[in-house]
TrEMBL record:
InterPro entries: AB_hydrolase_1, AB_hydrolase_fold, HAT_MetX-like. GO terms for molecular function: homoserine O-acetyltransferase activity. Its EC number is 2.3.1.31. It is found in: Cytoplasm. Residues 41-325 form the AB hydrolase-1 domain. The active site is at S136 (nucleophile), D290, H319. Homodimer. Pfam families: Abhydrolase_1 (PF00561). This is Homoserine O-acetyltransferase.
Amino acid sequence: MPEHLIFHYQKEFALESGASLPGFQLAYTTYGRLNKERSNVLWICHALTGSSDFTDWWGGLFGKGKLYDPADWFIVCANTLGGCYGSTGPLSVDPRTLQPFYHSFPQLTNRDIVKAFDLLRQELGLGQIHTLLGGSLGGQQALEWALQEPNIFQNLIQVASNARHSAWGIAFNESQRMAIRQDPSWSGNSRESGLEGLKTARAIAMLSYRHYTCYEAAQQEPGHSTTDNFRASSYQVYQGDKLAQRFNAYTYWLLSKAMDSHNIGRGRGGVEKALKRLRARSLFVGVETDLLFPVEEQLALHQQVPGSSFALIHSSYGHDGFLVEEAQLTHAIQSFYQAETLKERHYENTEV
């Protein structure tokens, strides 16, 4: 069974912004065991509202007889710094004030987040990671981490993500933060601050996570007489209420800004030059109906990373297809591994 653990870092942690945290903790989950060679590590980076419990939101990929069988793999996933599933975040107590951080929690970038992940990696004594896998925000973090530590990762699988967050994506996120700002409670300091705004923000987000065809298939009225209280309307309300029961507005705000700041070219001479640092064998996966991270973004990465692979997921679910279409994702990853094995054998035969 998966094991849920806590990593404590008790030194000052400097952030890209120039601010710092007086230490932090990361909640993380492991599944399976290290082999003798310590060569079977899979590290997962989760999406914006995800947790370290990857079997909960990507369960079709993990388990006995599945793509990543714990009998063969040692799987690790950490709840992101700034999160609300056990890692240090805005609802955590600031040891300097003995009060929750709330609005005083410093802004994070993906570079800060993966630097925290890397401290956990070092604590676990993992010198090499066989595969680094992430989708959406987690895909941004995976790519950034593979560039920060190019000699650690053998394979990178980035799903429905990009090299630099688009103006379109930033506009979506800002629209959601505008909804949170309109909540009168947002200016206060309590666990419930901004929750009503968060509900609206989530409803806006759903329009970027799903696709027109998905809404038409699942939320369109069956007849022709409805004039109010539409299925699509109640669905939006339901999604907002559902997230508000398990999340908080501070973390949503914080991590959406981390997503906006994603740009692997920052301080590296641009995206193209930054990608030359990448050493991991790479697979970039897109979803054909993704409005938030359109396929053009994954194709651009594939074209700029020599020897990389690309796979397209067919789905009516839009961006959420990367979570829903587990069978297609499994096939894409299996094909990637098989192709890389063939390349290795060809190289070995050539060397001989």
